[in-house]
Amino acid sequence: MLWIFALSVSLGPTVSHIPELDGKKVYEIVQPIRLHALQKRDLNSRPDTVKYAMTLGGRDIEMHLQKNDGLLTKDYSETYYTEDGMLVTTTPEDLDLCYYHGKIVNDSKSLVSMSTCDGLRGYFQTEEQRFLIEPLSEDGDGDHAVFKNEDVNEEMARVCGVTNTTWDESEEGAPPRILKSRSRSSVRRSIQLLYDEMLGFIIQFFVPPQYKKMDSDLQKLRKRIFEIINYINNVKINTFIALTGFEVWTDNDKITVSPVAGATLDSFTQWRNNDLIKRQQHDNAHLLSAINLDGATVGLAYIGTLCGGLSTGIVQDHNSKAIAVGATMAHEMGHNLGMSHDSSSCVCSDGTCIMTAALSYFIPQHFSSCSSSSYVDYLNSKNPECLMNMPKPKELIQPPVCGNGFVEIGEQCDCGTVQECTNPCCNATTCKLTEGSQCATGECCENCKVRFKESAAHVCRPKNDDCDLPESCTGKSAECPEDVFTVNGLPCKNGKGYCYNGQCPQREEQCIKMWGPTAVVARDYCYNQNTRAEYFAYCKRNGNKYIGCQRQDVMCGKLFCEDGNANPNYGRDPEKDYGQVDTGTKCGEGLVCNQNECVDLETAYKATNCSAKCRGHAV
User: Fold this and answer.
1) Which of 169, 332, 395, 597 is catalytic?
2) How confident is the model at residue 508 (pLDDT cuts 50, 70, 90)?
3) Predicted pLDDT at 185
4) Mind listing the pLDDT tens digit for each residue in 509-536?
5) Distance between CA 341 and CA 34 in Å, rounded?
6) Per-residue pLDDT at 158
7) Where along the chain is the active site annotated (predicted)?
8) Are residues 168 and 314 in the same domain?
9) Is residue 424 in a domain?
10) N or C: which end of the chain has fewer CB within 10 A?
């Protein structure tokens, strides 16, 4: 699960979000009609699916919408400050989750991102045109205004402030490097959907009275934020964002917010690493600010730094349309994911894509070929751990939704919508197994049946390496048994290491994981520095006190590497000691690192201590 964003927001008068029909815009008045639809809901929730019909430009349009139930996490919260500076965090109940994605009937190229909270407010595109829609009254009933994309042009061109593709974190004002190694499971390339869990928007107000303009309960602000996230979730790059909350700076600014984008980004990054990350876990933080950044700049972010100390960005709240701001935020998030600005050689199906340097009236919906390629390269070179942790269904606030492709509580299977489902074992309408079926998915499910006992020896998960063991079907379950591995201490990788909890830890691989494929282990002379008891060379740490290694333990202290990338693969826990040689790494013949000491195998994995040898999963 990607515990992603802390989004810091400084919002100006546009947050009030009253439709601005000031005569400068050309729009058509329509009257959306809600159609009856099959609903799976209780009396207090929004329907999972809903249909709307309207006549636009003489053409009848019917929208089919599916609720975005993964918008929030189970620990979603909202934070603000009292007048005397006290931080208050609440967990709102009965949130109105009225945010949908969908399609237009008989239009294969259509796309819809819509809020139905008070009428229809959002974005939709047909094969020919892109539109924005919003109600003409506060309650959302009756007439709505539909704008063509080009009719909401801004007075000046807007640009992203990123000009260079690398960031030297040793620059003044940047946080210190923190290093992190990764487990074997986190670098698998088979994940089809990556999840970003967005910590949220930290809302900043320059003038406290503006807070009162939002009815004090932040209802309008919350709706705007949800609409932004709903749009970003509809941008296709196999990455999903769930919001864990937002914070409102209602008393005073927590950082110095300057029109100089770089200075503001640095200040926000330091605040995030020193304050925010210690009280709420997340992987990425963004500041949404109403301040006018210098020139035409509306956003700035570090490149390729997701999950780490520089996993931040800032966005100017430059447009009354939340979706337009969402497009800018998606752009800055793209930088965090390793993407640079599109060039003339990039292929973009829409003419303008998310990572175009200059924004225009055209609200993009797709990433270009260059962006997709850069994202894959970033995943392969940096292995950002937080992207590899898919959330469990219980970690998202959502009732079971049949047809979303995830097997949730109360469902036996879920093969997608009726139109998408090709699994003969699963009823796409009920998300129950078809008659006579025992299973619908799983390595040990064959022709809708659990493999018979006589075929239970079928290997469903082959041996991965020297420290792994193969798993076979049991004949009792459609799922492959839990992964098991050899006992700790067995030689692996041709004697280069010893097995530890299913891995074969080696300094060479640790350097590559943290610094990229060109990194190599530094000379032994560097490891001798670990006797110095300095922040860059030590064995153990007690608070802010660094404890040097004994001579025999220097290979188990700080990890030293040469070459590689300019920036390492960061960790996100400020209290954790990153950059140390991994436990279980070989430090001599018959010797391994254990609690930053080089000890013999018997001491580390003594036979009388089963937990040390097995960890509950070894054989």
Assistant:
1) 332
2) very high
3) 30
4) 888 877 777 889 998 889 999 999 888 8
5) 41
6) 54
7) 332
8) yes
9) yes
10) C
Write down the pLDDT at residue 236. 65
Query: Has 101 been labeled as part of a binding site?
Result: no
- Cβ–Cβ contacts within 10 Å for residue 384, how many? 27
Do 480 and 509 share a domain, yes or no?
no
The answer to whether 366 is annotated as binding is: no
Give the tens place of pLDDT for each residue, 15-32: 333 344 444 467 889 999
pLDDT at position 179 is 27
Strands (E), 409-470: 426-427, 432-433, 445-446, 449-450, 459-461
What pLDDT, on the 0 to 100 scale, is given for residue 220? 78
For tokens 């009719």, what's the residue? 151
Q: Clarify whether residues 433 and 446 are in a common domain.
A: no
In degrees, rounded to 5, the angle at the alpha carbon of residue 135 between the alpha carbons of residues 134 and 141 is 145
Q: Structure tokens of 506?
A: 């080696």
619 found inside a domain: no
How confident is the model at residue 601, as a pLDDT? 93
Q: Name the domain count of the chain.
A: 4
Cα(108)–Cα(103) distance, rounded to whole angstroms?
Answer: 8
Q: Crossing angle of helices 322-336/219-233, nearest 10°?
A: 50
Does residue 267 sit in the same domain as residue 189? yes
Could you confirm whether 332 is annotated as catalytic?
Answer: yes
Structure tokens at 55: 């006549």
Query: What gap in Å lies between CA 196 and CA 382, rounded to an integer?
Result: 16
pLDDT at 210: 39
What's the one-letter identity of residue 338?
G
Is residue 341 part of an annotated ligand binding site?
yes
